[in-house]
N-acetyltransferase domain-containing protein (Streptomyces asoensis), 305 residues
Amino acid sequence: MTAFTILDDSTAWRAGFEQRLRASYAAAGLGVGAVEHRLDEVRAGVGGWTVAAVTDAGTYLGHVAVTVADDNGTPAGRIVDLRVEPPHTGRGHEHAARDWAEQWCAERGARRLDVRLTEPAGELFGDYPVRGQLRTRAIGSPPEPVDGVTARPMTQAEYPGWLASEKRAYVGDIVRSGALSPAEAARKSDRDFAKLLPQDLATPDNSFLVLERAGEPIGTGWLKHGHLPGVTYGYSLHIQDKHRGKGHGRAAMAVGERATLAAGDSALMFTVWGGNEVAMNLYTSAGYRVLEEGRSIALPRSATS
């Protein structure tokens, strides 16, 4: 019978966990500096995690690590890690560990349970809806412009309308993914934009672009350079509705890749929200790998996820 024992010393688990993360991040195209930066972010939260050894009749099988914290006013649980060693997989221990994590978090008041994956979910988390993916790709050389789409800097006059549109779109993405309610998403949007753009259009290390084709504006782009060492983060590459369906999405990504290299970075990263299969398919076709995928369900399990 699968059993769980909370560890007083999780040093051995932590070393193995970091090693697996390091290999996964590197395989997705991040350089050494970016990998270590991501690991530092993970390490910052380790002290608040609870790690349990998974055993059966005294035999060690693996680990499960969990935590509960406030997220925008809602207690949220998180499965930080769940691993059963290969000799013991496929015997129900993974499902037992998932069920234990769900119960542990629910008992501590969590109303939602998140899991962040660095490999395909498979059947274990197949019924956890996808809330978002972090995609990345190493950029070797500047791509040629696609379909004659070019970019120019956004003007001060264009910025207020763009900002209002971006905030609305951000709220819509979050709500569509099922991650937060409309009110929670609106509050998150206000907080995030205030933090990310304290100087509006003059905020350093950001590119605000207007995408054009034959002199006509067809979309916009917002990129944060040096988001991680050597990595530009694409907050948005947006094509206007009337210009969609014409292959301009790939053209916009080429614009972002050229801007990434021009800023001195060598990889481009995006978040794509759950429910946006069109964007996911576009990123896949363009060679952007899933660095992390977030999934979640509502707690208790009987609630609608």
